[in-house]
Design brief:
mainly alpha
């Protein structure tokens, strides 16, 4: 698999995580009874920010980026295992 494709998939994963984080914040602020899976980035951000002394925006960016990066990395590992 070309390096450009790997970089694109990882970048799309991070952007998806950031989008999910922003969307979860908007949805939670509109309705507090939203399902927990939808607001998972908010919980992860709260856990990261409470354990480390960092700005909440930076903690949110890191947590949401990781949420998107993990599935993208798994997808790339599966593609490599299949030989694609």
């Amino acid at each position: 698999m070309p390096r450009e494709a790997i970089a694109t998939v990882l970048f799309m994963g991070v952007v998806f995580g950031w989008f999910w984080g922003c969307l979860s914040l908007v949805l939670w602020s509109a309705n507090e009874r939203i399902p927990p899976l939808v607001i998972a980035p908010l919980w992860l951000t709260a856990e990261v920010a409470s354990r480390l002394a960092m700005h909440p925006y930076l903690a949110g960016a890191i947590a949401c980026g990781a949420i998107g990066l993990v599935p993208a990395a798994i997808l790339l590992a599966l593609a490599r295992a299949r030989g694609a």
